[in-house]
## 1
Amino acid sequence: MRTKEEIKKEIYSRVKEYYDSYLSSRGEAIPVSGKKYDEKELISIVDAALEGWWTEGKVTLEFEEKFKKFLGVSNAIVVNSGSSANLLAFKALMSSKIKERRIELGDEIITVAASFPTTVNPIIQAGCIPVFCDAELGTYNIRISDMKKALSSKTKAVMIAHTLGNPFNVKEVSEFCRKNKLWLIEDSCDALGATYDGKNVGTFGDIATFSFYPAHHITMGEGGAVVTNNPNLARIIRSIRDWGRDCWCMTGHDNTCGMRYSWKLGDLPLGYDHKYIYSEIGYNLKNTDLNTAIGVAQMDKLPSFISARRKNFEELLDKMKKFEKYFYLPVAEPNSEPSWFGFLLTVKEDAGFTREDLLKFLEKEKIGTRLLFGGNITKQPYFIDNKIKHRIIGDLKNTDIIMKNTFWIGVCPLIEKKDIEKMSEAFERFLKR
């Protein structure tokens, strides 16, 4: 009878053979984003499956440790998506345990209109009021003057993203939040590895969020994380993620506190099983060891992924400068080193063609493109149909330009030098036309 290790070795060998034979080729089309992996991710997920423990367990803990070490934070909580991460981050600040700084129904939250829906939706779902600021063309991040005008007696937090891996003006935003005693939630879902003043984004706010969807800097298939240096917030976040339970035992563990049948909380009888006492309004937003196993393998490659994105961005920028007559080119936030998610372009009003003309041409050329997510989120059908209560600062002029004229092309690690040449040549042919 063969040992477990002997059988595993054969399985791993077959997995590598399968990857080499059927999964190693990218295809002809130039992707706008996508996962880069090899047999190591496949072996990692198979190894987790062979353990027979498929919910959250030791592999998830291993990922959390790697992620904390990379960012330099004290708490990382893995969840099932970046959108769930945003929901958890916001709901944690509504916990009764926050006391005097607690976000409550009707409070105002400063954000941007040119955003992804799930940066804004937790604000709406919690019964709070999003206050929309305009973005700057070039950086596509919050206009600082609008942020300052947005402040009111009801303002409790700023919740904004580092747009497509380009850090927002952390100095101004952080100082504004400190001065006015506001919470700062950093949506870093598109910005893993970006730095501001030499420090990782996701480490400046009270809470930060990340996504591990296949389009992002690393992937778990589906997944995300919430990070914080505040131990009280970390416990609240884990509680809300784990059905709202008061118990902090890890999955598969019992009586970590040594008082499982000794608690008296709420109006429950003394000794009610602590595993079934709920102190928060919660959900089940956990991930599984099967997913996080992919993330463990991806973390080892993260530095090379970030480097590839920056290199591809710089090479594209060099190629695209000659087309500046037609486009606003992307601009890095001063004092930052972005970890670019994509290469943003905005068609100028006098370019002589529309964004749709160009995108249709690029599609025929098998060059992937995407818009800047929701464009002007206040113009989206769900926003109009549900008559969502909100405030707008100014006229959102740039946001409307973004909605009409902005798109992005890929810089992900799947893209090679020949792809950048092909993209540049395609733009040249279109513009000559």
## 2
Amino acid sequence: MLSEIHVYPISGAASSVGSEETPWAYREASYAGAIVGVNPDPVNTENITKCCKGYWSALHPHSSGGVDSNFMTDPG
């Protein structure tokens, strides 16, 4: 019930700077997203993790293929 998907538009200055001007990749992307799995009961950790990874796997083929390290809490 506390899990969510965040979708952030990439526009403005972020999309108007050339790809070689700063070290930020995927400037051609229109959106960045984050899959957030939250449940206060540790007994649900495996199910929440499985759900988030499944959602990521379903979306990944439609993505630019990378990740913004600012969205990573567990590289696994």
## 3
Amino acid sequence: MTNNPYSLSDYDYHLPDNFIAQSPFEPRDHCKLMQLNRKTGEISHHKFYEILDFLNPSDVLVLNETRVLSARLLGRKKTGAQIEVLLLKQIDEIHWEALVQPGRRFRKGDSAIFGDSELMIQVVDELADGIRLIKTTPAGEKFLQLIEKIGHIPLPPYIKRPDQPADRQNYQTVYADKAGSVAAPTAGLHFTEDLLNEIRKKGIQIVPLTLHVGLGTFRPVEKADIREHRMHAEYYQVSPENAHLINEAKAHGGRIVAVGTTSVRTLETLAGDDHILRFGFGWSELFIYPGYQFKMVDAIITNFHLPKSSLMMMISAFTSLPILKSAYQAAMVHQYRFFSYGDAMFIS
């Protein structure tokens, strides 16, 4: 290890399987919380509900209110061949980008049926990176209603068990509202309604935004020099009212505390060099890695991320690669749980 912030290999680390959380902690806000000083590397260990002690009345807590789709669909072709489709992002009323398995059996022009033949998917085109452009019948709102009935919650592959009915609730934040993600904004999974109410009682503003988590977040970085990596676009939306609340707090010395890397990515996409947040919607391709100058985010609540992931690179940009590595080593010593259903960090 060289602590080279641009070398992919320096973001690798060994994590024994027993550290990878296979199910959520109950209750949500009783999981472990590591507090990390991003300048000094000093750490302390807590329970997540103690986050209340680290937030100030002048802070704004920014949440991603995206909702995870039941985006994993299991179907069959007319030949009887089994097909799996993972929806990635909606293009229009009838078209989506998706990953398919096995790819060799589901090529351009092929179709398959899902559920009790209620849903048909046809491959319209084959795109880069193994992605398929698919056409759905039915379309629009009927399609979204149907996949909630017949689809599966798309648990990450490192969760080595089938999805269960409980995952439909456990793999959503309690404030999930706008459907569109294929992975949870996992830092938000630790909040309960009671904890959010306690945060509000302390005078802290809670402001939502939306970023629909897609391939850009969970596909690994493969370039040896990470600066050559290109993120896949993810849809974001921030209202004028919420941008104003964030700007007012920032102007009066309040901290902008981002819940999760998806909130960070949205805020930094819309922040200008003047440190003012714009409002609007669009597609973010922002890749944050060491050397990036943060314009909006002052503190981050996040989980412990996969080796060689763009998320680990983002957090290294917020603190430093050596400090992050040291914190991850400490997390293993103290038996923290890693990844989506794992424990949390508060970095400030």
